[in-house]
Design brief:
Largest sheet: 5 strands, parallel
Radius of gyration: 36 Å
C-alpha cells in the first residue's frame, strides 16, 4: 500500500471560502451547546466542496470532535443501500466501540441493517413502517452517542445517494432534537437536473429552518491567482493567470489540471474538451498504470486493493509500481482506511470510464464478477451481493446477472431498503426475457412467503415466475412509499392475468390495488375488493381467500357496517385456521371483535380483542398488537368507559413506540386524545394530538389528530382556530373519504363553527348532508353529538329572524334522525335526553324538569364538560321558572368552576352573564372583573356603551351598516366604527357571530320580525 506520495498540483494554501468556513465552524460551536446542526454544501463539480470539507474537519478535529465521513457510492443505477451511513457508522464503531455499543443496546439486530458489524440482520418484520422504525432507531442512537461529545457526520456526493440514504438523511434532519451532533452533506449541484431524485429532497430541506445550505461559487481572478501561487510556491506570471482563469472559468479543480498538464509538458495542443483536459495526465502514465486506472474507473467509487490485484492479474510489485505512478500523478488516492484506492476527483473517473470501449467495459466488469465469485473475502460481505449483481449486469451476461440481481433484491429488502429492492426487481424484469427458459426454470422465489402468499404452490419446487417478480415489486413499492408505482405494477400484473389462469394471484393483486387506490385517495377501494371476492368465490380455502375476506369485512366495518361483515370476518377466521395462517386469523379476529361490539355484544367483542392482543404480543406481531390497541381503545370510548380507554391507550402507545410502529402509535394517541377530552383533561388531550402530528405523515392519523384539536378549539370558543383545523382535516382526509367515523365528525365540526358564527342556514345544510349520507350501525357515537350540536344551534337561534323560516322542518328532521339511533349504554341515553330537551328549548317549551332529567342522566358519567353545560341549562330553567335560587346558584357555581378549569371561554361567559342577570354570586369562584356587580346589566357587563348597545341590537336583527346609520341618524362610517368596536369587545370574528352571541345570551329579549330597510328608503 502507498502513502506519502507527493501531489504537486494541489495548493497547500486554503484559498477563499472564509465565510463558508465560518458558517461551518459556527455550527460546531452551536452543537457543543446541545443544539444539533444540519448543513448542505452544494456546488458544481471541481468547485472546492471537498477542500472546504477537509478544512472544516481539521478544525473539528482540533476542537476534539469525533469525525466520521461516508461517501455515496456510484455503482450502477441503484447504489448501495445506506452506503455513506454504513461507512460513517463503521468509523464511529472503530473510534468509539464501547460508546456505540451502549447507544445501540437492545436494538442491535435492527441497526445491523445499516451497520452489519452490530450483528445478524433479522428476516423481518416487513411492513410499511419497517423503514420508519429503522430511521427512528438510527436517530436515537446518534443522539445518545453525541450526548456528551461532539460528533461530526459528513456524507459526501449526495447526488449519487440511493433512495434509502436520501430518506434517512431527510428523517435525521427533521428528527434530531438533542445531542452535540453536526451532520454535513455535500452534493454536486450541476448534476441535479430537473428530474434528478435529489431535487425534491433539496426543495424539502430548504423549507426547514434548521437546515443551512451553503452554495459554493467559482473563484474570481484574484482567488485563482492565490491558488496558482500556492501550487507553484511563487507568484505566477500575469499572462499565465489570465490564461488559466479564462480556460478554467474559476473552477478550482480545472485550475489544478491545467497546471498539472503544463508541468507534464502538455501545455500546448490541449483541446477545449473537458474530457480531453482530464485525460491528458492519464495518457502520459506508463501503460501498466493506465491499465490499472481504467480498471479502477469501472470498479466503483472505491476499489479494494485485494480485489484490484485479483482483477489486474499483475504481480504485487507490478501493481504497486503502477499505483505509485497513478498516485504520484495525483489521479488516484489511497482511501482513508487504507483498504483500497479511489480517484482523487470523480470527474477524472467519469472521463476515464467514458473513454472505455464497449467491449472493454464489459470485459472489465466480467473480470470483477468472476473474481468475486471465486473469492468472497475480497470485499465486505454486505457489499458483495449488490456489487456482484452490478458487475454481471454491466458485463452484459443476462444468465449470470438475473440470479445475482434477484439475490441483491433480497439483501436490499432485509435492510429495509425497499426503494433499492424495487429498482433491482425492475432490472430483473428487464432481464427476464433475455434469459433462456431452462435457466429461469431453475430459479425459485426467494423467501417470498414473508411478503405475499404462495397461492397454493410449494415454494421449494415451483419455478419463479414473472408474476412473482411483479408481486415482490408491488410490495416493495408500497413499503418504500412509491404507491403510484405500485398501482402501475398491479395494473401490469392484472393485464397478464386476464385469461383467468390464476384466480388466486389475480385476487391478491386486486386486494393490493384496493389498498393503493384508498391510500392515494383515488376512491374507497371497494370496487377492487369486490373483484377479489368474486375471484375467490367457490375456491378451496387458502391464505389469499382468508386475506380477501378479512379485508372485505374490515372495509365494510369502516364504510358500510352491517351483519354481512360479521359473517365474512368469521369465515375469514375459519379459512385462516384451515391453512395455518395465524397472523391472518388474528387480524380477522380483531375485526370480529369490533363487529360484535357494534352489533350489541360489547363484552364478547372486547374479550375477543383482548385475547388477540395478548396472543399477538406473545408471537411478537407488533402490527397486530397495535391494531388491537387501536380498536379496543376506540370501542371502550364508544361504550363510555373513557378511563379504561386512557389506561389501555397509554399502555399501547408505549408498546408500539418501543417497536417503532409510528402509524400505530399515532392512531392510539389520537384515541387517547379523544378519551382525555371526554374526561375533561383538555391540556393532556391537546398534547397527545399535537404529538400525533409529529409522529407520521400518513393522512388519516394526522387528520384525526387535527379533528381533536378542532373540537378543543370549538369548546374553548376559538372559532377561527376551529375553522382552520376543520379545513386542515378535510385536506388530510381528501375528497374520497367515505368512512363514517371520519365523515360524521367533520360534519359535527362544521355545524359547530357555523352555529358559532350565526350561520343557521349553513347549520341546516350540513345536517341535511350528514343525514343524507346516513349514520350506519356502530356510528351512534358520532351521530349523537352531531344531532345535539344542531339542536343547540336551533335553540340558540330562536328569535333570530333569519332562523324562523324552515325552523319547524329542521326540528322535525332532527327528531326523525334521533329515532333511528341506538342508545346501548348510559352515555348515549344521556345524549338522547339532552337532545330532547334542546329541541324543546328551540320551541320555547323546555321546563326545569326536562333539564333536571338531563342533569341526572349526565352526572354519573365521566363527562365534566357535558355536565357543566347541562347544569347551565338547568340553572337557567330554574331561574326562568322562579324556582329554587339556592339550587340554581349551586349549579351555576359548579358549572363555572368546571368551565374555568377546562378553559371553556364561551361557556364561562354564558354562566357569568346568567349569574349577573339573576344577581347570583358565583363565589367562591373568582369572576373576571367587570362581569359581576349588582347594578350592571348584561350588556354593560360586556363592556358596551349605550350607543354600542343600540348598534348591537340592530346587528342582531341583521341590519347592514347603512341600515343602522339610517335607524340611528349617524353616518355609515360611524356605524362601521361602532360595529368594529363591538366585535373586538365581544371577542368575535364577524357580525353573524355577534348576532348569534346576542341571541344565545338573550341580551335583548324576543325580537320581532322586521322588514328589511332598503338603502335610502
Amino acid at each position: 500500500m502507498l502513502g506519502g506520495v507527493e501531489t504537486r498540483s494541489v495548493s497547500p494554501v486554503f484559498v477563499g471560502r472564509a465565510d463558508e468556513l465560518a458558517v461551518l465552524t459556527d455550527a460546531l460551536t452551536r452543537a457543543a451547546g446541545q443544539e444539533p446542526q444540519a448543513l448542505l454544501i452544494g456546488g458544481e463539480a471541481g468547485v472546492g466542496k471537498t477542500r472546504l470539507t477537509e478544512e472544516f474537519l481539521c478544525e473539528a478535529d482540533r476542537r476534539g470532535a469525533v469525525v466520521a465521513v461516508g461517501g455515496c457510492v456510484e455503482i450502477g443505477a441503484e447504489g448501495l443501500p445506506f452506503a455513506p451511513f454504513s461507512t460513517a457508522l463503521r468509523t464511529l464503531h472503530r473510534l468509539l466501540p464501547a460508546e456505540l455499543a451502549a447507544a445501540a443496546v437492545g436494538q442491535e439486530d435492527e441497526l445491523a441493517r445499516i451497520l452489519p458489524e452490530l450483528g445478524e440482520t433479522p428476516r423481518g418484520p416487513h411492513d410499511e413502517e419497517s423503514t420508519a422504525r429503522l430511521f427512528e432507531l438510527t436517530a436515537r442512537m446518534l443522539e445518545r452517542l453525541a450526548a456528551d461529545r461532539t460528533v461530526v457526520l459528513v456524507l459526501e456526493d449526495l447526488h449519487w445517494a440511493d433512495t434509502s440514504t436520501r430518506h434517512l438523511l431527510s428523517y435525521l434532519f427533521r428528527a434530531l432534537g438533542s445531542g452535540r451532533l453536526v451532520v454535513v452533506a455535500t452534493y454536486r449541484a450541476d448534476d441535479v437536473h430537473r428530474r434528478h431524485p435529489l431535487r425534491p429532497l433539496l426543495a424539502e430541506l430548504d423549507r426547514l429552518r434548521t437546515v443551512q445550505r451553503i452554495e459554493l461559487s467559482r473563484f474570481n481572478r484574484a482567488e485563482v491567482r492565490r491558488q496558482l501561487a500556492g501550487i507553484l510556491a511563487s507568484q505566477p506570471d500575469e499572462d499565465f493567470v489570465e490564461s488559466v482563469f479564462d480556460r478554467s472559468d474559476g473552477n478550482a479543480f480545472f485550475v489544478e489540471e491545467l497546471v498539472a498538464s503544463r508541468a507534464s509538458g502538455c501545455s500546448t495542443g490541449l483541446t477545449e474538451s473537458l474530457r480531453d483536459l482530464l485525460l491528458v495526465r492519464v495518457e502520459v502514465l506508463p501503460d501498466a498504470a493506465q491499465r490499472v486506472v481504467r480498471i479502477v474507473a469501472e470498479g466503483g467509487s472505491m476499489v479494494e486493493y485485494a480485489l484490484l490485484r485479483a482483477v489486474t492479474r499483475l504481480t504485487e510489485d507490478e501493481l504497486i509500481e503502477a499505483l505509485r505512478s497513478a498516485v504520484g500523478a495525483n489521479i488516484l488516492l489511497a482511501t482513508s482506511d487504507g483498504e483500497g484506492y479511489r480517484f482523487r476527483h470523480s470527474l477524472v473517473r467519469e472521463a476515464v470510464s467514458d473513454d472505455l470501449l464497449p467491449g472493454e467495459r464489459a470485459r472489465v466488469n466480467r473480470r470483477y464478477a468472476e473474481e468475486l465469485e471465486q473469492d468472497d473475502s475480497l470485499i465486505r460481505a454486505e457489499e458483495r451481493v449488490i456489487r456482484l449483481a452490478t458487475y454481471w449486469y454491466y458485463a452484459n451476461d443476462a444468465v449470470k446477472a438475473l440470479p445475482a440481481v434477484l439475490a441483491a433484491s433480497v439483501a436490499a429488502r432485509r435492510r429495509h431498503a425497499y426503494s433499492e429492492q424495487l429498482r433491482l426487481l425492475e432490472r430483473a424484469m428487464d432481464l427476464w426475457e433475455a434469459v433462456p427458459e431452462e435457466v429461469r426454470g431453475e430459479l425459485r422465489p426467494a423467501d417470498y412467503t414473508e411478503v405475499y402468499p404462495p397461492c397454493g404452490c410449494d415454494p421449494a419446487t415451483t419455478p419463479l415466475k414473472h408474476l412473482d417478480l411483479l408481486a415482490e415489486a408491488t410490495v416493495a413499492a408500497r413499503f418504500g412509499g412509491e404507491r403510484e408505482r405500485a398501482l402501475k405494477l398491479t395494473k401490469t400484473a392484472l393485464r397478464l392475468l386476464e385469461d383467468g389462469h390464476d384466480p388466486l394471484r389475480a385476487a391478491w393483486f386486486w386486494t393490493e390495488r384496493s389498498r393503493m387506490i384508498a391510500g392515494l385517495a383515488r376512491g374507497d377501494g371497494w370496487e377492487e375488493l369486490a373483484k377479489a371476492q368474486e375471484l375467490v368465490r367457490g375456491l378451496p380455502p387458502s391464505q389469499v381467500h382468508a386475506d380477501v375476506l378479512v379485508r372485505a369485512a374490515s372495509w365494510g366495518m369502516l364504510h358500510k357496517p352491517g351483519p354481512d361483515n360479521l359473517v365474512a370476518a368469521e369465515r375469514a377466521v375459519e379459512y385462516a385456521r384451515m391453512v395455518g395462517a395465524e397472523d391472518t386469523e388474528l387480524n380477522a379476529r380483531i375485526t370480529v371483535g369490533s363487529l360484535l361490539v357494534d352489533s350489541g355484544e360489547p363484552e364478547r367483542g372486547l374479550a375477543e380483542m383482548y385475547a388477540v392482543k395478548d396472543r399477538a404480543a406473545e408471537l411478537g406481531l407488533g402490527m397486530l398488537v397495535g391494531r388491537a390497541h387501536v380498536n379496543l381503545t376506540s370501542h371502550l370510548e364508544c361504550l363510555g368507559r373513557s378511563g379504561e380507554a386512557v389506561e389501555l391507550a397509554e399502555e399501547g402507545a408505549e408498546l408500539v413506540k418501543n417497536s417503532h410502529l409510528m402509524d400505530s402509535e399515532a392512531y392510539i394517541r389520537g384515541n387517547l386524545a379523544e378519551s382525555l377530552y371526554s374526561l375533561g383533561r383538555w391540556e393532556e388531550a391537546a398534547t397527545q394530538a399535537r404529538r400525533t402530528l409529529t409522529l407520521v405523515s400518513s393522512a388519516a392519523p394526522r387528520a384525526a389528530a387535527v379533528v381533536r384539536l378542532a373540537y378543543l378549539a370549538l369548546a374553548r370558543g376559538e372559532l377561527a382556530e376551529a375553522a382552520v383545523q376543520l379545513t386542515a382535516a378535510r385536506t388530510h382526509f381528501g375528497s374520497h373519504e367515505g368512512q363514517p367515523q371520519h365523515r360524521i365528525p367533520l360534519f359535527r365540526l362544521a355545524i359547530g363553527v357555523a352555529a358559532g358564527e350565526g350561520r343557521i342556514a349553513d347549520v341546516r345544510s350540513e345536517v341535511a348532508t350528514a343525514i343524507e349520507h346516513g349514520f350506519p350501525l356502530g356510528n351512534h357515537r358520532y351521530a349523537w353529538p352531531l344531532l345535539l350540536a344542531a339542536a343547540s344551534a336551533e335553540a340558540d337561534a330562536r328569535g333570530l329572524p333569519a332562523a324562523e323560516a324552515g325552523r319547524e322542518e329542521a326540528l322535525a328532521v332532527l327528531r326523525a334522525a334521533a329515532r333511528n339511533l341506538a342508545t346501548p349504554v348510559p352515555v348515549w341515553t344521556a345524549h338522547s335526553e339532552y337532545l330532547r330537551a334542546e329541541l324543546l328549548r328551540a320551541e320555547a317549551r323546555d321546563t326545569a324538569a326536562d333539564w333536571a332529567a338531563v342533569e341526572a342522566a349526565v352526572r354519573p358519567l365521566e363527562r365534566p364538560y357535558l355536565l357543566a353545560r347541562a347544569q347551565y341549562r338547568l340553572g337557567e330553567a330554574l331561574l326562568a321558572a322562579g324556582g329554587d335560587r339556592e339550587a340554581a346558584a349551586a349549579l351555576l357555581q359548579e358549572a363555572y368552576a368546571t368551565a374555568e378549569q377546562l378553559g371553556a371561554r364561551r361557556l364561562r361567559e354564558d354562566l357569568a352573564l346568567l349569574a349577573q342577570r339573576a344577581r347570583l354570586p358565583l363565589a367562591p369562584v373568582n369572576i373576571p372583573k367587570g362581569l359581576l356587580g349588582p347594578d350592571i346589566d348584561p350588556v354593560e357587563a360586556l363592556g358596551l356603551t349605550s350607543r354600542e348597545r343600540d348598534v348591537l341590537r340592530l346587528v342582531a336583527v341583521g341590519h347592514t351598516n347603512r341600515q343602522i346609520a339610517e335607524e340611528l341618524f349617524i353616518s355609515p362610517k360611524t356605524a362601521s366604527v361602532h360595529v368594529s368596536n363591538i366585535l373586538a369587545k365581544l371577542g368575535v370574528a364577524g357580525r353573524g357571530e355577534a348576532a348569534a352571541l346576542a341571541h344565545r345570551l338573550r341580551l335583548f329579549g324576543p325580537v320581532a320580525q322586521q322588514p328589511a330597510v332598503t338603502p335610502g328608503g
